[in-house]
């Protein structure tokens, strides 16, 4: 744990979707920052980041960037994390990494604070943020697991363009405008047209036919919930939505718990807002959850095909709790 009054904080990728949100959240949550060091590629060196009424100049990420840094948020992609996280740690910083560089490393804590903050003190310099889809899943699965022991979860994710960074957001906007104007489209962030389309492909395909992200979601869930017996299978889909990931989750439990009780359990769980009133057409939707801190959960109902099964639908703001907020909450634990 860190014990100072104010901290020198570096944000690697400060001009990106997640880095910008981290800076906003540090200000919004009044994190004790003495000096902010925004870092990016040489493309944005010299740009300004506004923080607490002051403009901080973006610097090019380099080996010398971390002198005197206490906490370094990494949000510049896997390659940058692999290249510079250990450099930051050697300079004395604690790294909170939002990429997938360290998520599979059993020696590096993988944290969703509401679920496993007790693991944070085991870090040796680096702490990893899980995939946005995992964060949404475990927040909902953990309280159900504590009450009824989950045997198996089947999840399908509906992932927004912001999850792929600023280029993907631009690509969705530009393709939409081009297609509505009968013009040709350009694609680079996705392997196919994303506007007016769903792409069932996130990550690299493995021999099993699953993708790395789908297997990652299953492994990360078991790690964070500290129970290797939970079986998880996933299908991850990119959808033409700008912000928020939606997830359809089917859960098989050891104990039979009615949907009403699940609703009550989730209503008192941290980080969750139950939004579930089908009679009034109320259920979580991306357009309502964008900008929110909580995971919204609805459509909670018995799975009629299973004796102990539940279906539900959750929505998480992938930029906020799915990445930046989770990272800032980890930092808050470090300085508590
Ligand atoms: N978006 C999400 O919902 C989400 C969720 C969970 C995790 N993540 C992870 O967060 C990380 C950032 O994602 P993002 O969505 O914020 O991406 P993004 O919008 O594309 O931003 C990327 C950031 O990294 C910087 N960068 C790129 N190459 C660099 C280099 N060679 N050296 C230094 N800085 C470099 C960019 O700086 P320039 O402006 O100079 O190009 C920009 O600040 C990724 O690892 C991603 O997997 C994202």
Please provide a written account of the structure.
The protein is an alpha/beta fold. The protein has two domains: 7-130 and 323-335, Rossmann fold; 134-318, Dihydrodipicolinate Reductase, domain 2. The chain is 31% helix and 24% strand. It has helices spanning 17-28, 78-90, 113-116, 132-148, 166-180, 212-225, 259-267, 286-289, 320-335; strands at 7-12, 33-40, 48-51, 54-57, 59-60, 71-74, 94-97, 126-128, 150-159, 231-238, 245-253, 272-274, 295-302, 309-316. A six-stranded parallel sheet has the order 5-2-1-6-7-8, with helices on both faces. A six-stranded mixed sheet has the order 10-9-11-14-13-12. A two-stranded antiparallel sheet has the order 3-4. Helix 1 (17-28) packs across helix 9 and helix 4 packs across helix 6 (212-225). The longest helix is centred in the middle third of the chain and has 17 residues, at 132-148. The protein binds NADP nicotinamide-adenine-dinucleotide phosphate.
Brief overview, please?
This protein has helices at residues 17-28, 78-90, 113-116, 132-148, 166-180, 212-225, 259-267, 286-289, 320-335; strands at residues 7-12, 33-40, 48-51, 54-57, 59-60, 71-74, 94-97, 126-128, 150-159, 231-238, 245-253, 272-274, 295-302, 309-316. With 336 residues, the protein is α/β, with parallel strands linked by helices. The chain has two domains: 7-130 and 323-335, Rossmann fold, CATH 3.40.50.720; 134-318, Dihydrodipicolinate Reductase, domain 2 (2-Layer Sandwich), CATH 3.30.360.10.
């Amino acid at each position: 744990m860190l014990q100072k009054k104010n901290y020198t904080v570096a944000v690697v990728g400060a001009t990106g979707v997640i880095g910008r949100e981290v800076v906003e959240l540090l200000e919004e949550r009044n994190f004790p920052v003495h000096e902010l060091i925004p870092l990016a590629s040489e493309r944005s060196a010299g740009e300004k980041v506004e923080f607490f009424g002051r403009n901080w100049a973006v610097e090019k990420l380099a080996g010398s960037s971390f002198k005197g840094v206490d906490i370094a948020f990494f949000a510049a992609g896997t390659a940058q994390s692999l290249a510079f996280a250990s450099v930051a740690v050697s300079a004395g910083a604690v790294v909170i990494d939002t990429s997938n560089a360290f998520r599979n490393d059993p020696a590096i804590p993988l944290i969703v604070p509401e679920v496993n903050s007790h693991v944070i003190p085991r870090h040796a310099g680096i702490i990893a943020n899980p995939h946005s889809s995992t964060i949404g899943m475990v927040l909902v699965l953990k309280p159900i697991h504590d009450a009824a022991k989950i045997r198996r979860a089947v999840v399908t994710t509906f992932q927004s363009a912001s999850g792929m960074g600023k280029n993907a957001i631009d690509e969705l906007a530009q393709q939409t405008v081009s297609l509505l104007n009968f013009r040709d489209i350009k694609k680079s962030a996705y392997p196919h047209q994303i506007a007016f389309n769903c792409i069932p492909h996130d990550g690299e395909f493995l021999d099993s036919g699953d993708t790395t992200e789908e297997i990652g979601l299953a492994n990360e869930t078991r790690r964070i919930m500290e129970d290797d017996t939970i079986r998880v299978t996933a299908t991850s889909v990119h959808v033409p939505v700008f912000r928020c990931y939606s997830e359809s989750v089917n859960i098989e439990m050891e104990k039979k718990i009615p949907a009403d009780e699940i609703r009550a359990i989730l209503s008192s769980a941290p980080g969750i807002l139950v939004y579930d009133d089908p009679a009034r057409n109320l259920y979580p939707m991306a357009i309502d959850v964008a900008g929110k801190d909580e995971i919204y959960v609805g459509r909670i109902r018995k799975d009629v095909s299973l004796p102990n099964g539940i279906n539900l639908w959750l929505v998480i703001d992938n930029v906020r709790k799915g990445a930046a907020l989770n990272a800032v909450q980890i930092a808050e634990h470090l300085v508590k």
